[in-house]
C-alpha cells in the first residue's frame, strides 16, 4: 500500500463526530490484515456523559487525553480489547470507537484469531475488531500515522452514513443515550444492531 495514504495527525484534531463520519470507509492495517471501517461511535468533549473522561484523568484512560491520532485501548468485561482513535486537541478526552469492520485482506489470520468462518458476525462488535487485529493494552498511545504497527489509511468515503444511538451506555444521561452518534456504512452487512440505525441527514 502507498504510505502516502496514511491519515495525518490533523485529520484527528477535530470534533469526534466529524472524525467518526470521515473514518467510515477508511482502512485499518496491521501487518497482513486490512479492515475497512464500517461502524463507529463518537465520544465527544466536554459534555458527553458517556465519555470515559467524564470523571477526569485516570491511569486507565490516560491515553484518551491525547495527543490526537493515537490509540486509546481499554479492556471491557476483563476480556475484550476495544479500539478507540483519539480525536480533538491534546488535553481533551475525546475519541472514536471502532465498532465494526469488513475484512479486506488477511482473512486466514482473522479467521484463526476469531475462531470462525469469515462472515459479518465475525467482525461486528468492537471486541471482535480488537481480537481480529491481535491488540492488547500495550497498544495504548500508539501513533496511527506512522508506518508500521497499526495504521489508518484513506479508503472510499461514505457520503450519507446511517446514524443511531450508541450501544452499552445506560449510565449516560438520556440526552446522550439517545444522541445519534453511532454511524455506519449503508448497504453493508458488516454492521451491528442495524435495526437501531436510520438514514442520516
Automatic annotation (TrEMBL):
Species, as recorded: Nitrosococcus watsoni (strain C-113)
InterPro entries documented for this protein: Formyl_transferase-like_C_sf, MPG, MPG_sf
Name of a matching Pfam family: Pur_DNA_glyco
Example of a GO biological process term: base-excision repair
Name assigned to this protein: Putative 3-methyladenine DNA glycosylase
Family from the record: Belongs to the DNA glycosylase MPG family.
The enzyme's E.C. designation: 3.2.2.-
GO MF, any single term: DNA binding
Signal peptide interval: none
Keywords: DNA damage, DNA repair, Glycosidase, Hydrolase
